[in-house]
Amino acid sequence: SRLHGYAVPAAFTGKPVELGGIAGRDTSTSLGGVFVLEWFLENSKEFKDRLPQDISVAVQGFGNVGANIAQILFNKGYKVVAVSDSESALYHKNGLDINEVIHSQDKKGKIPKNVCYPVKIKEVKNDVDCETLTNEQLLEADVDVLIPSAIENQLTEENASKIKAKVILEMANGPTTPEAENTLTKRNIIVLPDILANAGGVVGSYFEWVGNLQRYTWSNEEFAESLKNIMLKAASEIGKVKEEYKTDFRTATYIVALRRLSNAIKLRG
Questions:
Q1: How far apart are CA 89 and CA 87, in angstroms?
Q2: Rounded distance, CA 90 to CA 231, Å?
Q3: Which pLDDT band, with edges at 50, 70 and 90, does 121 fall under?
Q4: What domains sit in the chain, N to C, each tagged with a CATH number?
Q5: How far are the Cα atoms of 50, 135, 153 from residue 131, in angstroms, in the given order?
Q6: Residue 8 backbone phi and psi in degrees, to 5
Q7: By the 8 A CB rule, do 96 and 75 touch?
Q8: 214: number of CA atoms within 13 Å, CB side?
Q9: Which helix (H) or strand (E) holds 103?
Q10: Average pLDDT over all residues of the chain
Q11: Element (H or E) spanning 245, and its range?
Q12: In whole angstroms, what separates CA 266 from the centre of its chain?
């Protein structure tokens, strides 16, 4: 902006709405992940006939991405049974009230471990019902969907054989090592890779950039619908390639990317 002598909001993204940012950018990574997960569940023989409340979820990491995806899934009716921060995890077999957990975290700066917020129980229950787990125990919890949203290399060759989740939605960057993924694939555990699952944040930044260039303001509804369309289109294309090559989702994602690059190179001559 100083170089040009006037405001250039498109120079970077993630800005406050008042400075040319876009409403929904802060949750776009998580929302995009939810779209990918629900696309998979709706197209899965095992999950397509199950209601959200019958699908259990554990979320490792309760920062911006982890807390938001836990809250979105909870508000959609999914049974979020475990969440964790950098210290430890909170678990309740019937599900946690994520809105209450977030409210308490906002006040205390971390997930409260001495207070339990189980679903459908209005009053706070101190030191009962909930269990405190380590992050390692959360990763090995008996759930349908595991969402690593913290840091890289959480699923390794050492713990891959202990994972009980049927689906892993990678919201962190690189949470699964190649050795772990080989083991998970052999055990028929689905890994929805980070390059697809957490792409919603980059898409949100793209929307912000385009809006800045065009001096256009997105509504919340328009933003969410456009994000959904892009994420579902990508997931569907990757799903078709997966079936075509009889491979895993990560390999299918790379194939789609390389096809696009190859086509662009050919067109450029």
A1: 7
A2: 30
A3: low
A4: 25-200 (3.40.50.720)
A5: 26, 12, 25
A6: -125, 75
A7: no
A8: 9
A9: helix 98-108
A10: 90
A11: helix 220-245
A12: 34
